[in-house]
Amino acid sequence: MDQRKAFIRNRLKEDDLSPEQRGLFRLLGRDRYLDLCEELGRTAVSVAKLETLRRSIARRKIQENKKLYKSLKISKAQLAAMYGFSAKTVYNILNSADKRHE
Length: 102
What we know:
With 102 residues, the chain is mainly α. Helices cover 72% and strands 0% of the residues.
């Protein structure tokens, strides 16, 4: 560890940070927070909401299992209910998968 990082590591207090940074500091802990600062300092970082991740996974699952759903005769409305989408969204997901494979 270089001297600069050691200096900061040994002296940094949570009160030295902005309110937004304090949350990261508490969540990650001192060492991981400093690693994050070193790696991504002065970079805008966007963190996805859990719902956004769930929707991305659901979209992928619908696309990957399109043939299975068709063979089981599962309707778009049923898929929508299973994955928490509207029937129109399921329709769009299935059509976009078709266009990628043309």
